[in-house]
Amino acid sequence: MTNANLLNISSKYGSPVYVYDSEKIISQYKRLTKAFKNVENLRLHYAVKALSNLSVLKLFNNLGSGLDTVSIQEVKLGIKAGVDPSKIIYTPNGVSLEELEEAIGLGVQINIDNLVILEQFGTNHPDVPVCIRINPHVMAGGNTNISVGHIDSKFGISIHQMPHVLRIVENTKMHINGVHMHTGSDILDIDVFLHAAEILFEVAENFKDLEFLDFGSGFKVPYHDNDIQTDIDELGKKLSKRFNDFCKSYGRDLTLAFEPGKFLVSEAGFFLVKVNVVKQTTSTVFAQVDSGFNHLIRPMLYGAQHDIINVSHPNRKKRFYSVVGYICETDTFANNKMISEISEGDILAFKNAGAYCQTMASNYNSRFRPAEVLWYKGEAHLIRERETFEDLIKNQKMVEFS
């Protein structure tokens, strides 16, 4: 997308606004499938939590992707978007048996990550195929908050508890059709990922009727020029060969599954904001914008670094700015960042805003959540309207005080 496209969108739909480039989404999807072209049966389940708009889910469905969901609401969104329930995997954490049973009724693949629910599920529904999420005790991910496969993580069943798993499976006669892991996001070292994969292969040998192995995802995308990223092509070569060798020894061709989210949508996203005030203090020049961590919390929550460009005047001399929001607490998007000289009214674009931006937005300070726009075949399509005051109060009830 060009700066002119982004400016036109901000002019038409206002700011702040989330914008997604469908061509980048499509190219990332094709890039991943190409990397694993030597695997006979490959299934990608797009991680809905990254960006859950119905139009985006429909786009992935058109590409042939399944969905990775972590809540019953995400399951229902996928079905609403037209995705076949058989292509949806449901991997919740810490939910009740009742929610899992609701998912059974919707016809999706169940993935269980704790012994208590596994036993309850197997006792009540032994004929329903189940995938087991293991915790490989491998530390991977770019931040402790997004590393989920280590020994202190709440996610998955410890590999050291496999005797308990096998006892439950034997006692309940339940049907295990897949094993799953997810080590974390922003994986830098593919050898760490491959090490965890070996643990998954070892676990898989305990089950004789598997249909798929799910290796999660966490592939890192670049956030700025020359930034490190996961070497997808190298990972594709090494893991494909190892997976094919495993299938031969297992005696059956299994499906290799992944659950990419950020990898597919992050670089496709732009978050557009307007500069309200350029404020000079004794030590800093602040660019104060019409947004805050209610719309983009990742820099504050994860220390994420998003490139910021002045799309109104990209060719001006660069100066140092601290870009901050309008929230009543510190909401600094960037400190002393070089950006083309900013004037009040300029439109700034945060790059890599496709993943975990809108889906983590809130109404903090009673601010409205922004609109969403999908750029598709050279045209801007409004795919979520901006909230209004009526949206903010529609579920509230006023008490009549005497």
UniProtKB/TrEMBL annotation:
Gene3D superfamilies for the chain: Alanine racemase (3.20.20.10), Lyase, Ornithine Decarboxylase, Chain A, domain 1 (2.40.37.10)
Residues annotated as domain Orn/DAP/Arg decarboxylase 2 N-terminal: 24-266
Keyword Amino-acid biosynthesis: yes
Pfam families: Orn_Arg_deC_N, Orn_DAP_Arg_deC
GO biological process: lysine biosynthetic process via diaminopimelate
Chain residues that bind pyridoxal 5'-phosphate: 218, 356
EC number: 4.1.1.20
Example GO molecular function: diaminopimelate decarboxylase activity
Residues bound to substrate: 298, 302, 329, 356
Keywords assigned by UniProt, alphabetized: Amino-acid biosynthesis, Decarboxylase, Lyase, Lysine biosynthesis, Pyridoxal phosphate
Domain Orn/DAP/Arg decarboxylase 2 C-terminal residues, every copy: 18-354
Record pathway: Amino-acid biosynthesis; L-lysine biosynthesis via DAP pathway; L-lysine from DL-2,6-diaminopimelate: step 1/1
Cofactor(s) needed for function: pyridoxal 5'-phosphate
Reaction(s) catalysed by this chain's protein: meso-2,6-diaminopimelate + H(+) = L-lysine + CO2
Annotated positions of the N6-(pyridoxal phosphate)lysine modification: 49
Active site: 328 (proton donor)
Family the entry assigns: Belongs to the Orn/Lys/Arg decarboxylase class-II family. LysA subfamily.
Quaternary structure, from the entry: Homodimer.
Function: Specifically catalyzes the decarboxylation of meso-diaminopimelate (meso-DAP) to L-lysine.
Name of this chain's protein: Diaminopimelate decarboxylase
